[in-house]
Design goal:
- The complex is a heterodimer of chains A (about 525) and B (about 260).
- Helices cover about 25% and strands about 20% of the residues of chain A.
- Chain A is of the alpha+beta class and about 525 residues long.
- Chain A has a domain at about 5-70 and about 90-290 and about 460-525: FAD/NAD(P)-binding domain, CATH 3.50.50.60.
- In chain A, the strands form 4 sheets. In chain A, strands 1, 2, 6, 7, 8, 9 and 20 form a 7-stranded mixed β-sheet that branches. In chain A, strands 5, 10, 11, 14, 15, 18 and 19 form a 7-stranded antiparallel β-sheet that branches. In chain A, strands 4-3-17-16 form a 4-stranded mixed β-sheet, covered by helices on one side.
- In chain A, helix 2 packs parallel to helix 7 (about 210-220) and helix 9 runs antiparallel to helix 10 (about 375-385).
- Chain A is globular, with a radius of gyration of 23 Å.
- The two termini of chain A are about 30 Å apart.
- In chain B, helix 2 links the parallel strand 1 and strand 2 (about 35-40).
- Chain B is an alpha/beta fold and about 260 residues long.
- The two termini of chain B are about 20 Å apart.
- Chain B has 9 helices and 8 strands.
- Chain B has helices at about 1-5, 20-30, 40-50, 65-80, 100-110, 115-130, 150-170, 200-210, 235-245, and strands spanning about 10-15, 35-40, 55-60, 80-85, 135-140, 180-185, 220-225, 225-230.
- The chains are: A alpha+beta (about 525), B alpha/beta (about 260).
Amino acid sequence: MTGDIQDTLWDVIVIGAGMGGGIVGRRLAEMGLSVLFVEKGPNGHRAERQGLNPDMADPVARQLRGYWPGPMRATINGRASEFFGPLGAGVGGSSVFYAATLERPERHDLEATEDRPHPTGGWPVGFDAMRPWYARAEALLHVCGEADPLSPEPPADLAKPPPLSAGDSALMTSLTRAGLHPYRLHSAIRYLEGCHDCLGVKCPRPCKMDGRSAGVEPALATGRARLLDNCTVKRLCGAPGRISHIEVTRRGEAFDLRARRFVLAAGAFGSPRLLLASHAAHWPEGCANESGLVGRNLMFHLNEMLALWPPRAAHAPGPGKAISLRDLYHRDGQRFGTVQAMGIDAGYGEIVHFLNGMFDRSALRHIRPLRHLTRIPALIAARLMGQAKVFVGLMEDLGYPENRVTWDENAPEALDFTYHLHGELLTRRRAFRRAISKALRGHRRLFLTHQPELNFGHPCGTLRFGTDPKTSVLNADCRAHGLDNLYVSDASFMPSSMGVNPSLTIAANALRVAEAIGTSLPKDAAE
Amino acid sequence: MNDRIKSGIAVVTGAGGGLGRALVLELAARGMRVVALGRRRDGIEETAAMAPEGRVEVLQVDVADAGAVREGLSQIADEVPITLLINNAAVYPRRDFLDETPDSFMDTVAINLGGMVNCSHAALEGMVEAGFGRIMNVSTFADIAPLPASSGYAVSKGAARILTRAMIADLADRFPDIVINDWMPGMLATRMGVAHGLDPAQSAKWGATLALWHDPVLTGTVFEQNREILPPRGIKGRVKDALLLRRRRPRMISG
C-alpha cells in the first residue's frame, strides 16, 4: 500500500501534521512541490468530536482518539510526577483540540523596544518582518475578531465576529466602564451554520480552522501531497551537513523514506526528542545538536484562571470564547500576558471541580470526607451568582537551559521533561495576580488557581532559532545550523514564549519557512 | 431531530414476526423507510405486505452470518444512509444446560450476541462517516437471575447488554450524535414471549418513539417499556442528591 510512497524521492517530507506541519505542507504543495506528511497518530474519522481526556489511560484508546499515547513524565522542582498531557498525536496534532484563539503577539514579544528589553535580546526576525506572515496566516485560517484598542500597530484585517451573547455584552460594558480595554478575541472559528463552537474538541467540519482543516486537508486537495498516518519516525539519518532519509515504522513494518528537504514539525516535545534519538557517530549528542541546546529552554505559559460573573445573570446564545484584553500585557516593566475568556461558563460543577483541586493541594487533603464539603460553598456561589465566565491570564515564561525535554530510549512513548519554577517567575506571577485583581476591582470574581499552573498545552522554545550557532539550534530561516536540508516549523523555534497563545505565530512562521524552502529548492534541483 | 433520522432508512432485525414486525409497521406508519431484516423470506415479506406500499424493503439475511450482513447492509447504505438500527433478532431455545451441546449453545450466542455485533458493526460504518445515527438494542433482564433451561439466552442477552456499554465506551465521546441505548420491551404476547403478555403493537409504539428519539443524553440509558430505569445509586450518591436537593426522575416515553 505504501510501496509507491517508499519509492518516491519527495521534494519535502514533513514530520508531524499539526499546526506547523499542516501549514508548511499546504504552502509547499501549493507552490508545486511534492509533499509527504508523516504523522505518528491516526487520520481519524472526520465526524469525530472528542476533546482531550486526561483520565483515559489506555495507549491504544488514546492513540486512536488522536491523543499523544504515552504520559508526560515530569520532574518539576525536583519532584517527579506522571500524567497525561494536553497534547495531540494525529492529523491536525494538538490544534484539533485547541480553542482556536489566534492572536498576534506584541512587538516586545519578538524584539527589544525602547523601554522593554527582550529576554534573549530579540528574535532574529523582528515584528515588522513577521507582520506580513501574520496577515497571511490570518487569511488562511479565517480569523475573525476586532482590533485591540490599545495596540499602536496597524490593525489586522480580520473577518467580522458573530454578535456577542447578552452576558458577554454586559461584561464587555462593565469592563470598559472599569477603564479596561476589552475587545473581540481573535478566533479561527468560521461559525458556519450549525456550528458547535468546537472549543477544545475536534470539529466535525471545516469550520474550526486548524492544522487539519487549514493545513493537511487543503494540501491533500492539491494532489501533490500524501499522508502516512500511524507512522512513527524513529530517527533522522544522514551524513554531516545533510539528512538523507528517515527511518520509520508503520503497523509493525520498518522502512526508510527519502526526500530532498525535511521539515520537523513534531511539536516542542516531539521535535527535540527525535533529534536526540537520532544520535550517531557523526552526531554524538544528537542530530543538529552541536550547540547542546536541543531540548533546552523549554517554556510553557503560566495560567491564572478566574471566574468572573457578568453584572446581571443574562443567558443567551453567542460565541463561547469572545473577549480578550491586553491592559495587563506589560505592566510596570513586567512581562505578563493576555487575559482572555476560556469559553467556559462555570456553573456549580466546574466550581466544585476547581475547589476540589484546591482541596487536593491543601493541608486537609488527607481527610477525604471533608472533600465533599466543597460542594456547599460552590452550590451557594452557583445559586447566588449564576453562571460565571471563566477567564485565563496567560503569563509569559522565560527560557532556562535546565528546563528541558529529554529522551529515554527505553520509554519512547513517554514525554520526559525537567522544569524548575524560578523565583523570578513566581515573583512575576504574584504581581500578575495582583494586577488582575486590581484591574477587575468592582467585578465579582474568584481566582480558580492557587498554585502556579503550567500550561502544558503551550510548550515551546526547545529548538530556538537565532543567528549564532553556539546559542541557537536553528538559523533565521528555521533551518538547522550545520545542516543543508533540515527545517523546523513547530513551536520549538521560539526563543521566548510571548504573552499570547502560540498557534498564530506557529502558522505564520510555517508560511515563512515554506517560503525559505521554496526558494532554496530550485537551486538544489540544478545540483 | 427526528427529521434527520427520517431522511435515512431504518433497519429492524428479526422482522419476520412478533415485536420485530410490530416495530417495522409502527416505524413505517410514522413515515420512516424501513428494511425488514430476517432469516425467513416468507416472514419478512408478510411484514412488508402489511405496511404501506413502498415503505418497507426486505433483506433476507441470517444475522449470525457476518459476511452476509455486511454485504446486505452496505448495498442498502449505497442508496440511502442507515440512520437507525434496531437490534431485535433473538432466539430463546428452552434447553437444559446438560442438553445443550457446546455448538448448540454457541449457536444461540451467535444469533443473540453475534447478530448484534454483526449488524451494529456494519451499520456503524456509515454512521461514523456521518457522525450521526441511532442504535437501539432490544434487551432483557434475563441475565440478572437466569431461569432454568435458559442458559444460552441468559448468557447471550446479558453479554449483549455489556456490548451496548462497550460500544458506548468506544464511541460516545467521539460520536456524541450516534445515540445508543437499551430497551426492554417487557413480557410480550409473541411466540418468544408469554400468552398473557403485552400486545406487541402497543409495545412497538413505545419502541418506535424511543428509537426515533435522537438525543445524545439518551446514550447509555435503559428503558423498560415506556419508562427509564435509573442506574442504581449508592448511599453516598443518595446523600449527595439529598444535599443538593437533586431528584432523579426517570424519563418517560410519551404516547
